[in-house]
Write a structure and sequence with these properties.
about 250 residues, alpha+beta, Serine Threonine Protein Phosphatase 5, Tetratricopeptide repeat, TolA/TonB C-terminal domain, 3 domains, 9 helices, 12 strands
Amino acid sequence: MLQPVLSESPQCGQMIEEAREALQNGDAELAIKLTTFCIDSTKEQWAFYVRARARLFLSDTVGYCKDMQDTWELPEERKLEFTAICTVKDSGSFSQAGMDTAHFPGVKTVSKELQRADSVQVFRLYDDRDTLLAVFSVRNGDTLYSVASMAPEFEGAQGRFNPWLMKQIKYPDMEFDAGIQGTVYVRFTVNEQGQVLDPEILRSPSEGFSEEVLRVMAFMPPWTPARAFGRTVRSILTLPVIFRLR
């Protein structure tokens, strides 16, 4: 278990330390109560980490994996731990995967990965030279490509998205006055018609930044959709939006 560093909130820092000690003494339920209070008030990532460890102590692997997804700024060791516990990998020939050869020409090998946190299956497709052809995930019945032979493009060309975004984004007044900067990571789907759907904020330094990014996403023009195996496909993208004071 990693050693938490001091939280910016003294009260939260004390709770995290008490939770860690409780967990070391076998009281995972108390550790969860203490860290949940801290998470509700500050979203402190060390609180997510200690709560994740407490849930794992109680054999709640899914709960552990969900909490670990919110520890993205913590040391590199936690990524190794997360991957080892939260992903289940398997691979085999294309014929064993039960896929339609007409839809996936040239594919010889399929690597499958189950992400326990949200029960998402990820498929990596390779040709006979072990060249990666495509990567897609199955989320709530939708097949979403993250790697395709032709990636989706904003307004049909590379390099146009950032200039468009810079013109649309407005720095929120509250964050500007407080001197807050940072990067918002937003995930969204581009469907077969190029429409932008289901924007979701993955990480953000503030609520104001999140609201501004979602406001702009709501009127984003269509993209040129991704293509894989000779057809247009639904794809999923994660993009950074940087707020920086000048």
